[in-house]
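Re: your question from the hallway

Yes, I did run it. Sequences:
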Amino acid sequence: MTDDLQVAAGPDSTPRHLAPGDVGLVAPRDFVWSQPFTFKSGQKISGFTLRYETYGRLNATRDNAILICHALSGDHHCAGWHSPDDKKPGWWNNLIGPGKAVDTNRFFIVCANVLGGCQGSTGPSSLNPATGTPYGILFPFVTIRDMVRSQKLLLDHLGVAELHGVIGGSMGGMTALLFAIEFPHFTHRVLAMATTGRESTQAIAFNEVGRQAIMQDPAWNRGDYSRDGGPRVGLAIARMMAHITYVSDASMDRKFGRKKKDNAAGDAYTLDMQFEVESYLRHQGQSFINRFDANSYLYITRALDQFDLAQAYGSLEAAFAPVEADTLVVGFTSDWLFPPEQNRALALALLRAGKRASYAELSTDLGHDSFLLESEQLYTLVRGFLERDQLYTFDYAI
Amino acid sequence: MNPLVAKRTVDMEIIGDWVEPNTRVLDLGCGEGALLDYLVQQKKISAVGVDLDFNKITTCVRRGLAAYQGDLTQFLRAFPDRHFDRVICSRTVHELSHPTEVIFEALRVGRTLTVGFVNHGFWKNRLNALLQGRKIRNEVYTTEWFDSRPANPVSVADFENFCATKGIRIARRAHLAGDWHTPRRTLPNLLAGFSLYDLAR
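Structure:
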């Protein structure tokens, strides 16, 4: 997920966090699970922490919760502002808020940083209680299933009796689908966008280049590095490359074209920075290393590559056999990382398995990150899917 | 209710009679899902619709229907034989670019295929074309040539000939007069405004 699709809402005179439809100032909290947790790999940890945020209120019947699942580089801060001075709100602030498509007046929204992450949840950069030093690559391998199971423990802790819905894009879409498979009675609606039942060879290949950029950086040191050190060059390069896969040829061309930097040297016979797109990618890389841990990047991309519903359950139809949720899959025409075809395949397999599933496809040229798009069409669809029971009563008396 | 809206509900009534309760029904070209919604309410069917338009799919989703945005043929190919009890293709056949292929695929994935269409051979259409010498325009064909999508109009005679040539069994027919309401059994190619067929392999 890229960092730059957000546009702050509200007229200049109103503080942004007080704009209508904004959840306002929010604060993360920590859920501490202090019993042993066994990963799918069989490896164990003595407990874990998930950092999470909630917006809205859990109702008396405790069934109005919606879980938001983030993508590879996302986090628990999906809406609102941590302080009035924040440069940007949460990453899905355009979708989530009072009166918005995911309406916090109606629903209790939960979003947690994934297990294995580095934004406050337990992951490779956390201290190993056995050694007093960061786990590094001694941290157990994480799968999407481990993310799902740990977030279910959080939802139980919050008193959520059943999920009205689970929503996610990209890796978040995988998480959402697996929630409905692992906890079928608990999960009533799944909204999965720009996602897949398994990554293409090309997507794995891109992840591998990112991992190699990190692991070939001498500062990686087999995952053993200090908090402010580590493979900063490798991680920045991994991010620069990944960023290209999240957008599209058309959107990059529109944003930068072949524009040169103002201070670019007059002649082209130099290896110094020339094009704006170079400067932009370097900035993306640099800002990423200040907020993301290289080992987490290795672990989570590995979790993405390993995710394969068809292989894990025998077939996609077999994977979806237990599902009780209504599912809506949304693909985006310009997404070449998790292309429409892979999104369609999910909806078709659900339908073949006899489940209630819908597929919608939005024409955009923003690439994989289109799921973060500010689009009234998308908002109407999302709201319709989440609220439909209340919206329509048709009279067909003839 | 304006006449066109009244007409829209006609195939609902007849298809509603033909659909067995609690069956699995696929609507090809479901539009905003009005027919499926009606069938869900009246017959408790398990419904899926297919359409090409994002906003129509959105309306289906808002109605609580399962709907798939995409190409009909590709959708049908993704399903095993007889996955659906009934496939409905009402007021869609004249817009198909490969009608034979879609109809055969629909007969493969469905036990029964219901086809409904405006009869292009209806006498008023013939007269209109003869007298005006222009694209037929009336309350059914509402648009000028330059505002119309490409269409492949079909008459009762065309469709009967198609079924006979391809060996498709016609299990049931319903021909309706120009009001799309009064049953019309004689000379349907001339006198029927709208016709419905139940087909089987």
